[in-house]
From TrEMBL:
It holds the Pfam family Response_reg. Residues 141-370 form the Sigma-54 factor interaction domain. SMART domains: AAA, REC. The keyword DNA-binding applies. Keywords: ATP-binding, DNA-binding, Nucleotide-binding, Phosphoprotein, Transcription, Transcription regulation, Two-component regulatory system. This is DNA-binding transcriptional response regulator, NtrC family, contains REC, AAA-type ATPase, and a Fis-type DNA-binding domains. The lineage of its organism: Bacteria, Pseudomonadati, Bacteroidota, Flavobacteriia, Flavobacteriales. One of its GO terms (molecular function) is DNA binding.
Amino acid sequence: MSKILIIEDEAAIRRVLTKIIAEENDSYEVENAEDGLEGLEKIAKADFDLVLCDIKMPKMDGVEVLEKIKKLKPEIPVVMISGHGDLDTAVNTMRLGAFDYISKPPDLNRLLNTVRNALDRKELVVENTLLKKKVSKKYEMIGESEAITHIKNMIEKVAPTDARVLITGPNGTGKELVAHWLHEKSDRTKAPMVEVNCAAIPSELIESELFGHVKGSFTGANKDRAGKFEAANGGTIFLDEIGDMSLSAQAKVLRALQENKISRVGSDKDIKVNVRVIAATNKDLKKEISEGNFREDLYHRLAVILIHVPALNERREDIPHLVDFFSKQIASEQGTATKTFSNEAIALLQAYDWTGNIRELRNVVERLIILGEKQVSENDVRLFASK
């Protein structure tokens, strides 16, 4: 059930908007407020998924209402309702964080498309906010090696800027962790970070996933849908495994980076986006360029800042810190007592060939905590950490 609040001082307009939206989808629950003060009181007391707000109202105008909503509950998309003379103001509200604006009298299709797109974006924002909170609590940049210290220093310098970052390194080294820390230490941290695993999405669907689509643009496109770039507007989009992206999608990403606008699949309409792009890959993109699999111009657009995350075998001095961190984390998750590791056990773990990197080390630590003695010994490692 999606809760929608309409803030509008004209009773006739309220009735029309309520009727149109309620009849569109029986899962929409619509409430009304006669002015901005009443609207803000309702927003403070209940969770709404979307607010439609008039610009010209008594007691408090829509611009002020928008600013207060963005401070009170910034995750709620706000669509401004503008009269003919309010269009310049409506456009300015977009800079203040409005999702969109619709003109009076409302066009039926325009109104319903805007409502659906705003609710889609709200759902994505909530999902990514939950993920962000989960990541913030569970993961930290662990290690004191020269390589990790260098990465931490890079993040501190680069995060406050809007510079695009390309993160390279083998699978399991923590490239996505670097991306999250870049976002969380940036000025965009209050906006969403949207992740896209380019390798996990079929090539025929990647463009729709990134840029959205309009109804009927392909089989299965039953309604208009916003893409990940729109969902990340004002925030960060993380394109993981970008080396696996199709050349067709690469061309569209390049255009988005060059012009700060995208178009949905099946549509010629341009949509402006303000998104910071962070990309990651385990591939040698220069080799992919020479083989015709990756666009050189896109590479140069993405690789403004390069951060390489080394394999665990290249920073074995961090293994004691990682084992200690994972031990406490796993014990907390399982509700068990924390186990210690003997010096001999740690030394043996440092000698292993960690082809699966950090991901493999965590799995081994979890296995040892479950199967090992109160203090994990060298013998436990030999028994339970074998490849």
